């Protein structure tokens, strides 16, 4: 149940916004104008992800794929849950030497998949760089882990935020400059893609 209605934006009189109301109650508000670089990047990633190589079957699933057609021919009236239970019981009764061919094939398939996946990830556009605060938090994380080994992530995050607020403007500007340089590199890379 997707309903679309147009809403006039109070802040921008010339642009119209598109409001999508989904059956779950969630809503998506997007500008009805030229897509930004981020939106174009996300659209490209969505398009590329449609061609993402699927993860190969594990050893148990390879066994199932081999045995299910045989079981279907010998017991055509058996329902799928019953077939699955029977195949599972057969798999569990196999010795390690009987499982070895399936495990070896699964390992070969996984190795081939990792090669294909590495090539696929090279086609994805680069990720947007982290902001100044995130750069700061990544820089002091090892120090915090050493100083406060018993604290959880949330407590360390609160300490990080407090230290960021207490940081002098010159140090904050340093992280801002790093972010600006990385953003420029990212924009240049996006333009090449």
What can you see in these coordinates?
It is a single chain. By secondary structure, the chain is mostly helical. It folds into 3 domains: 1-33, no CATH class; 59-123, DNA Binding (I), subunit A; 132-192, High mobility group box domain (DNA Binding (I), subunit A). The chain contains 7 helices and 3 strands. The protein has helices at residues 37-49, 59-74, 80-93, 96-123, 132-147, 153-166, 169-192, and strands spanning 3-8, 16-21, 27-31. A 3-stranded antiparallel beta sheet has the order 1-2-3, with no helix packed on it. Strand 2 and strand 3 (27-31) form a beta hairpin. The radius of gyration is 27 Å and the shape is elongated. Residues 1-31 have low confidence and may be disordered. This is Similar to Saccharomyces cerevisiae YMR072W ABF2 Mitochondrial DNA-binding protein involved in mitochondrial DNA replication and recombination. InterPro entries: HMG_box_dom (IPR009071), HMG_box_dom_sf (IPR036910), HMGB (IPR050342). It comes from Maudiozyma barnettii.
């Amino acid at each position: 149940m997707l309903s679309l209605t147009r809403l006039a934006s109070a802040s921008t009189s010339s642009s119209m916004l598109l409001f999508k109301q989904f059956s779950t109650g969630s809503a998506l508000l997007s500008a009805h104008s030229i897509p930004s670089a981020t939106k174009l990047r996300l659209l490209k990633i969505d398009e590329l992800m449609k061609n993402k190589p699927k993860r190969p079957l594990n050893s148990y699933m390879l066994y199932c794929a081999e045995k299910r057609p045989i079981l279907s021919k010998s017991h055509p009236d058996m329902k799928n849950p019953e077939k699955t239970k029977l195949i599972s019981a057969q798999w569990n009764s196999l010795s390690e030497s009987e499982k070895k061919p399936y495990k070896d094939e699964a390992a070969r398939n996984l190795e081939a998949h990792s090669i294909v996946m590495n090539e696929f990830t090279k086609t994805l556009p680069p990720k947007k760089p982290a902001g100044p605060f995130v750069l700061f938090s990544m820089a002091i994380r090892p120090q915090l882990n050493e100083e406060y080994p018993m604290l959880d992530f949330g407590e360390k995050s609160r300490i990080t935020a407090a230290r960021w607020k207490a940081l002098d403007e010159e140090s904050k500007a340093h992280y801002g400059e790093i972010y600006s340089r990385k953003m420029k590199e990212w924009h240049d890379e996006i333009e090449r893609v």
